[in-house]
Amino acid sequence: MASPRVPVAVVGASGYAGAELCRLLLGHPRAELAAVCGQRRAGEPLASVVPSLAGITGLVLEAFDARALAERVEVALIALPHGDSAPVAAQLLERGVAVLDLSADFRLHDAAVHAAWYSDLPEEAALHRAEAVYGLPERHRPDLAGARLIAVPGCYPTATLLAAAPLLAAGLIAPDVIVDAKSGVSGGGRSPSLATHFCEIGEGIRAYKVAGSHRHTPEMEQELSVAAGAEVAVTFTPHLVPMARGILACVYARATAAASDEATLRQALVAAYAGEPFVTVLAPGKLPDTAHVRGTNRAHVQVAHDSRTGRVIAMAAIDNLGKGAAGQAIQCLNIARGWQETCGLGHIAAFP
Amino acid sequence: MASPRVPVAVVGASGYAGAELCRLLLGHPRAELAAVCGQRRAGEPLASVVPSLAGITGLVLEAFDARALAERVEVALIALPHGDSAPVAAQLLERGVAVLDLSADFRLHDAAVHAAWYSDLPEEAALHRAEAVYGLPERHRPDLAGARLIAVPGCYPTATLLAAAPLLAAGLIAPDVIVDAKSGVSGGGRSPSLATHFCEIGEGIRAYKVAGSHRHTPEMEQELSVAAGAEVAVTFTPHLVPMARGILACVYARATAAASDEATLRQALVAAYAGEPFVTVLAPGKLPDTAHVRGTNRAHVQVAHDSRTGRVIAMAAIDNLGKGAAGQAIQCLNIARGWQETCGLGHIAAFP
Amino acid sequence: MASPRVPVAVVGASGYAGAELCRLLLGHPRAELAAVCGQRRAGEPLASVVPSLAGITGLVLEAFDARALAERVEVALIALPHGDSAPVAAQLLERGVAVLDLSADFRLHDAAVHAAWYSDLPEEAALHRAEAVYGLPERHRPDLAGARLIAVPGCYPTATLLAAAPLLAAGLIAPDVIVDAKSGVSGGGRSPSLATHFCEIGEGIRAYKVAGSHRHTPEMEQELSVAAGAEVAVTFTPHLVPMARGILACVYARATAAASDEATLRQALVAAYAGEPFVTVLAPGKLPDTAHVRGTNRAHVQVAHDSRTGRVIAMAAIDNLGKGAAGQAIQCLNIARGWQETCGLGHIAAFP
Amino acid sequence: MASPRVPVAVVGASGYAGAELCRLLLGHPRAELAAVCGQRRAGEPLASVVPSLAGITGLVLEAFDARALAERVEVALIALPHGDSAPVAAQLLERGVAVLDLSADFRLHDAAVHAAWYSDLPEEAALHRAEAVYGLPERHRPDLAGARLIAVPGCYPTATLLAAAPLLAAGLIAPDVIVDAKSGVSGGGRSPSLATHFCEIGEGIRAYKVAGSHRHTPEMEQELSVAAGAEVAVTFTPHLVPMARGILACVYARATAAASDEATLRQALVAAYAGEPFVTVLAPGKLPDTAHVRGTNRAHVQVAHDSRTGRVIAMAAIDNLGKGAAGQAIQCLNIARGWQETCGLGHIAAFP
Question: Is the pTM of the predicted complex or chain greater than 0.95?
Answer without folding.
Answer: yes
